[in-house]
């Protein structure tokens, strides 16, 4: 039995958005993910005072920061 299977049996993954056991992000929460509704929110330029490194000047937002995405990122971050 692979080590990953043993770890999943002992510590089953739970959805980062709702806590449901079975996956890192469950299908129900994943289906609620939405792209940013306003095109202006999709591209974010860094503020002059924020140092992100030489290579990062613009960031693309893949998902709207609301609902399950917001909860999942909060739980993964903190």
What this model shows, in words?
- The chain has 78 residues and is of the alpha+beta class.
- 31% of the residues lie in helices and 8% in strands.
- It has helices at 3-10, 27-31, 67-77, and strands spanning 43-45, 58-60.
- It has a two-stranded antiparallel ribbon.
- It is elongated, with a radius of gyration of 17 Å.
The computed structural class is alpha+beta
Radius of gyration based on Cα positions: 17 Å
Strand content: 5-15%
- Neighbour order of strands in the largest sheet: 1-2
Euclidean distance between termini CA atoms: 32 Å
Task: Provide the residue-averaged pLDDT.
Answer: 80
What is the strand tally?
2
Overall morphology:
elongated
Give the topology string: H per helix, E per strand.
HHEEH
Quaternary assembly = single chain
In the predicted model, the low-confidence regions spanning at least 5 consecutive residues are none
Write the layout of secondary structure elements.
Elements: H1 3-10, H2 27-31, E1 43-45, E2 58-60, H3 67-77
Antiparallel strand pairs: 1-2
């Amino acid at each position: 039995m692979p080590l990953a299977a043993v770890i999943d049996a002992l510590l089953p993954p739970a959805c980062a958005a709702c806590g449901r056991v079975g996956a890192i992000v469950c299908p129900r929460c994943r289906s609620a993910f939405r792209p940013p509704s306003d095109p202006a929110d999709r591209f974010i330029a860094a503020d002059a005072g924020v140092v992100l490194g030489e290579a990062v000047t613009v960031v693309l937002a893949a998902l709207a920061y609301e609902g399950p995405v917001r909860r999942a990122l909060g739980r993964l971050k903190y």
